[in-house]
Amino acid sequence: MYLLVCAAVFAAAYLLNITWISVFYHRALAHKAIELGPRTRRFVVAAGPWITGMDPKAWVAMHRLHHIHSDTDQDPHSPTTVGILGVLLKQLRSYTSIQRALAKGDPAITRRVRDLDFDAPDWMYNRMTALLPYVVHAAVAVAFASITGFWLLGAAFWLGMMSHPIQGWLINSFGHAVGPRNFDLDDDSRNPWLLGLLIAGEGFQNNHHAFPASAKFSFRWWEIDPGWGIVRGLDAVGLATIRYDKLIPTPEAWARKTAARRQLSELVDPAGQAAEQLLASLKPVPQAAMAAATEAALDLLEHGQEIADEAADAVRRQMLR
Hints:
Largest sheet: 2 strands, antiparallel
Order of helices and strands: HEHHHHHHHHHHEHH
Structural class: mainly alpha
Number of helices: 13
Number of strands: 2
């Protein structure tokens, strides 16, 4: 029974953390896939650092840079460049570097988040005080365990609340290295099913990179996105509004769209090839002919101006009579 209680506490703390990261930071702030009311948004931003240990503005900036430079040398966290284990340290270095850039007002970073009308509290920009959420939750866990003797229960609470670094590492590494792909993209994004199930749908990276503005990350019927369920619940009680016009299409709708594109390509490609062949068959214009054409054009312009001047004089004379 004790182990079940520990598991339940871990699950509750983990659910709170992943809701803030996946639903609020990711789908709402980073991609605007859902809209939050002003009060809800203020609460999300204010409580976020304490619940996740992460600066929402720096998190959004790093994530947007990831989409822009996905799996290239400029990606803040890609297993393609640093390996699966290397992502754990790379994402931390990128996050702290982006925080410093925001604090200094570096335009290369600030322009990525100029739509966000808030800043993280000052204590988040100090290396030591930025650890306050981890310390506070650890203190709560230790105090509870010291009084009750339930040390495993306290550890379950702390691990669930402060789980994002591990969540992020699993998604940023395995989500771009292991699993199937539904969409042929230029990056290495994948859809590891188990990570999608365990981390609020975040494992469906290939789907997400194909349709980043979609509040729903799953595409196939067997792809389960728990984050989408949370989003729908928030929408139902009026705390969020889903942008249905941006949702990932159904497989049937995508198949129809792909077929239509293929048909259009079959019609357009032959015309394009014929135009290329025609241009290739044309002989270059001789230099002498080009010079003669240029001279004729200049003469035409000169005489045209004379004719225009004569017409203007005739009009003035007619008006003076």
